[in-house]
Specification:
Length: 316
């Protein structure tokens, strides 16, 4: 599987000549084939997953989501925000963060959405694997402590988790009323778009990092050897009160990797020539240049890496 160089030019990326419809169908086909193999071979027993009986701050009866009225989803208000980087302000900016045509940044208008406060954890993903009988190609995905971010998950896995969680929350009678109301109103669980991720990370003031313009210091898990517990780095100045939007693990989005300016309406049109999918935020192994809110990475949808995870959002 290929990973895009996070600091390279979009023109350097390899592309796969496949139609947009074919790519989307391939994603879902891979999930269906895995389920069919289990049925055909009689392998209906869920994977052997050990989950904790209790986990501080999380609800075991609701798939180990955070214990609050929206199960960890935080409202990000509608309105414009500045996307991309100005190299005159951010000396660490990569050229793939520029909008071109004389514009170093762009303004994007987004409707309200809700972003998960934490990255998807080992316990949350383990509940999915067990309940949905989802394949676990890399057992190491669940080897970290239960409250660490899950890693070594492909884009297809992240999409499958979001789809499963959406249905599971609708069916579970314990889902809090405030969240159930949103689901009944047409909100759904999905990966965030690249723009949604960046707005959630940096707010509407074009800050370089989720907390401001200064390097991480002790606000993020970076230049490290492994993941840390989600939310373990205190960041009272972080936009919207979200945790680990810098470092810990790269996070998949639902956006194909393509040059700016950002326009979600053309995602399916370009997916056939952009077989990489955007991931954001940098990881525990990266330095301060890669954990900036505007930095962009990309990887093949089947890539499973020890530094790639995800978080989900509520969108409509």
């Amino acid at each position: 599987m290929r990973d895009a160089a996070t600091g390279g030019s979009p023109a350097d990326r390899l592309s796969v000549a496949a139609g947009a419809v074919a790519l989307v169908l391939a994603v879902w086909a891979s999930l269906w084939i895995a389920e069919s193999r289990n049925s055909a071979t009689g392998e209906t027993r869920p994977p052997d997953v050990t989950l904790p009986g209790d986990l501080d701050g999380f609800r075991p009866d609701l798939f180990y989501l955070p214990d609050d009225s929206l199960l960890g989803f935080v409202a990000i208000p509608e309105g414009p925000f500045i996307m991309g980087s100005d190299p005159g302000v951010d000396r660490l900016a990569f050229d793939l963060e520029w909008w071109g045509e004389g514009r170093v940044q762009g303004t994007v208008e987004l409707p309200r959405f809700h972003m998960a406060r934490f990255e998807t954890t080992v316990a949350q993903y383990g509940a999915f694997v067990r309940e949905a009988n989802h394949p676990l190609p890399n057992p190491g995905s669940l080897s970290a402590p239960a409250d660490h971010p899950v890693t070594s998950v492909a884009w297809t896995d992240a999409v499958a988790y979001a789809r499963w969680l959406d249905g599971a929350l609708r069916e579970n009678p314990a889902t809090p009323p405030a969240l159930r109301l949103l689901l009944d109103e047409g909100w759904r669980v999905a990966l965030p778009s690249e723009a949604e991720w960046e707005k959630a990370a940096r707010g509407d003031d074009a800050r370089i990092y989720p907390w401001g313009d200064q390097p991480p210091g002790n606000r993020a898990n970076y230049r490290a050897s492994s993941t840390s517990r989600v939310g373990s780095f205190s960041c009272p100045d972080c936009a919207h009160g979200l945790s680990d939007m810098a470092g810990n693990v790269w996070e998949w989005t639902r956006s194909p990797y393509q040059p700016y300016p950002f326009d979600e309406s053309d995602d399916l049109e370009t997916a056939g020539t952009d077989a990489l999918w955007v991931m954001r935020g940098g990881s525990f192994a990266d330095n301060e240049q890669f954990v900036r809110a505007a930095n962009r990475g990309g990887a093949d949808p089947g890539a499973r890496r020890a530094f790639i995870g995800f978080r989900v959002a509520l969108v409509r």
